């Protein structure tokens, strides 16, 4: 699955492949895994996710990445490794690409997501239930791109992250209110959105 958005300006120095990790064991079990304590070493790709990645790499239809950068969670690390191997790249970690922390919802069934998203729609700064505020997620995600825009130019950078952070980032890049992040088309596991120059 691919979504392509127009950049905000003609002044992007790089092109970005914004990728959600492949189908994971957390997806398979229907549980929320958002804390580094649980997500870095556990809940990697599911068998289906591994098959997704094999198919995606075999049928690659996007520009070839020149860099692969990923969240340090196991599911994103494994996803990045599969793509990086195809292009002979060494992936690098950026913890700012981590999953949004869902606070005391950690470990609960994923049916609890909508109650948090309803609060997001009212206030992008809320931290109810100990969740990471949407505004904080947007800030750290945008900072990743801002840093690359300062460091390099003419590159195609694959950023492997998670559903909520990527939807929040795309909302911010589009200049839309952060409270509307769930109005974005949900990003499927292993989906890639192309953003930046030449799009």
From TrEMBL:
SUPFAM superfamilies on file: Phosphoglycerate mutase-like
Domain of life from the UniProt record: Bacteria
PANTHER family per record: PHOSPHOGLYCERATE MUTASE FAMILY PROTEIN
Protein name as catalogued: Histidine phosphatase family protein
Organism: Vreelandella boliviensis LC1
Lineage of the species this protein comes from: Bacteria, Pseudomonadati, Pseudomonadota, Gammaproteobacteria, Oceanospirillales
């Amino acid at each position: 699955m691919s979504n392509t958005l127009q950049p905000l300006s003609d002044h992007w120095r790089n092109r970005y492949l914004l990728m959600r990790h492949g189908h994971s064991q957390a997806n398979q079990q229907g549980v929320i895994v958002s804390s580094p304590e649980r997500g870095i070493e556990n809940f990697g790709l599911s068998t289906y996710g591994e098959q997704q990645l094999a198919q995606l790499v075999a049928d690659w239809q996007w520009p070839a990445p020149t860099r692969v950068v990923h969240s340090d969670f196991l599911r994103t690390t494994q996803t990045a490794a599969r793509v990086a191997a195809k292009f002979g790249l060494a992936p690098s970690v950026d913890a700012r690409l981590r999953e949004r922390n869902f606070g005391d919802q950690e470990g609960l069934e994923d049916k609890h997501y909508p109650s948090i998203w309803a609060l997001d729609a009212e206030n992008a700064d809320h931290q109810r239930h100990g969740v990471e505020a949407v505004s904080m997620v947007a800030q750290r995600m945008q900072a990743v791109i801002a840093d690359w825009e300062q460091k390099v130019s003419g590159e195609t950078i694959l950023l492997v992250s998670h559903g909520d952070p990527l939807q929040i980032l795309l909302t911010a890049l589009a200049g839309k209110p952060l409270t509307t992040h769930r109005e974005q088309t949900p990003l499927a596991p292993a989906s890639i959105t192309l953003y930046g120059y030449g799009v």
